[in-house]
Amino acid sequence: MPIHIDIFHPSRLVIAVVRGTFTADDVRDAVSQFLASDIVHYRKIIDIASPTTPLDKAGVETMANLVLAQRDDRPRGPLAFVVNSGQASENAEAFARLTEGARTVKVFQSLHQARKWLDENTQPAGPR
């Protein structure tokens, strides 16, 4: 599977690592997993630093629309993308613009920076 998801319930953190070629269907499956696991309010790190085939502009728009179309009124946790330079960075920035207002999204060049930002700027949600 091109999207590997680890869920850390005690710290209310999700880390999704994308490797290889991925599609809108893969993203749809990951979003479905988030919803089924009741973790939309968790903080998330999505590592797209080394997918072999990044999504094109239409794919990014499809992914953003898919996420926005989820009928879920619960607050969404902040999202930190970890990217390399180039297309992955552009895709993450485009996704952030397209989903602006749905949650806080920030783009980083390293996992360490992303984790530090989440730890310093957000508090895990209280018990559900």
Describe this structure in a few short sentences.
With 128 residues, this protein is α/β, with parallel strands linked by helices. The chain is 38% helix and 27% strand. It is built from four helices and five strands; from the N terminus they run ββαβαβαβα.
Molecular structure report:
This protein has helices at residues 24-36, 57-69, 87-98, 111-121; strands at residues 3-8, 13-21, 43-53, 79-82, 105-108. Strands 1-2-3-4-5 form a 5-stranded mixed β-sheet, sandwiched between helices. Helix content is 38%, strand content 27%. Helix 1 (24-36) links the parallel strand 2 and strand 3. With 128 residues, the protein is α/β, with parallel strands linked by helices. Helix 2 runs parallel beside helix 3 (87-98). It has one domain: Transcription Regulator spoIIAA. The model is unreliable at 124-128 (pLDDT under 50).
Topology as a string of helices (H) and strands (E): EEHEHEHEH
Show unreliable segments. 124-128
* CATH domain topology: Transcription Regulator spoIIAA
Structural category: alpha/beta
* Strand coverage percent: 25-35%
> Helix count?
4
- Rounded radius of gyration (Å): 13 Å
Total count of strands = 5
Overall helicity: 25-40%
CATH class equals Alpha Beta
Question: Largest sheet, order of strands side by side?
Answer: 1-2-3-4-5
Morphology = globular
Please name the fourth-level CATH homologous superfamily: STAS domain
CATH architecture: 2-Layer Sandwich
Number of individual domains: 1
Distance between the termini: 30 Å
> Largest sheet, if any?
5 strands, mixed
> pLDDT average, as an integer?
80
